[in-house]
Design brief:
Elements lengths: L3 E5 L3 H13 L3 E5 L2 H7 L5 E4 L8 H9 L6 E5 L4 H9 L4 E4 L4 H19 L9 E4 L2 E4 L4 E4 L2 E3 L3 H11 L8 H8 L8 H16 L9 E4 L3 E4 L1
Length: 229
């Protein structure tokens, strides 16, 4: 299967370089140089590589609007290097964040990892009668990758869904940052990944409850990790 990749960047040279890299890997590549075009093309893609600083609507707003239409993986590829930039990227719905200038091999690895997680977890498994269950106020449908909170559907990104799935399938079990990162991201753990995990947990809490400052379901066990109560 040839995956479809949309590159969104107002810099034609960046688009050309990334296009060549991905085409050589066998991907079907499309391009856009602004957020509006990206939004109109997003539902025909399997993954989106998105810049932040673009004319018109920026990458953050573009990501938010795309998230209203699809949950396919979104990778920010940007020159914005501050931690608050990265946090805002994840908050807008991105799955990963890579800073320019970037390693070609790292970009390919990130794309492959995002696609692998999304399509493997999305699953082609046989229907399982136990795939849909209720934990407190949360209804979780593993097979169809849907979540409801008090009977209202919650729109989660792929990473958020996988985090919730891991925690909710093992209630009361504490997962360290290392365990979470290696199981969800399927990559070797580095200490710098802690902030990435924290941002995704925070976003997930906001979507599941009224007051994320007093988490009701996903608890922080200080010095150890996170658990689902």
């Amino acid at each position: 299967m040839a995956y479809r990749v949309l590159i969104v960047d107002d810099n034609a040279e960046i688009r050309e370089v990334v296009n060549i890299l991905l085409t050589n890997e066998g991907y079907i590549v499309s391009e856009a140089d602004n957020g509006d075009d990206a939004i109109s093309l997003c539902q025909d893609q399997d993954i989106i590589i998105l810049d932040i600083m673009m004319p018109g609507i920026d990458g953050y707003k573009t990501c938010e609007k795309i998230r209203e239409l699809t949950n396919i993986p979104i990778l920010f590829l940007t020159a914005k290097t501050l931690e608050e930039d990265k946090e805002l990227g994840f908050h807008s719905g991105a799955d990963d964040y890579l800073i320019k200038p970037f390693s070609y091999s790292e970009l390919i690895s990130r794309v492959k990892a995002l696609l692998r997680r999304y399509f493997v977890y999305k699953g082609n498994e046989k229907p399982n009668q136990d795939s849909c269950f209720v934990r407190k106020d949360i209804k979780f449908d593993k097979e169809n990758r849907k979540v409801w909170m008090n009977d209202k559907e919650v729109n989660l990104t792929d990473i958020e869904f996988q985090i919730l799935e891991l925690l909710i399938m093992h209630p009361k079990k504490v997962f360290s940052n290392k365990e979470l990162y290696e199981q969800i991201w399927d990559e070797p753990y580095l200490y710098t990944a802690n902030n990435t995990i924290m941002v995704h947990i925070r976003n997930l809490r906001k979507k599941l409850m009224v007051d994320p400052a007093n988490p009701k379901y996903i608890r922080t066990v200080w010095g150890k990790g996170y658990r689902f109560d």
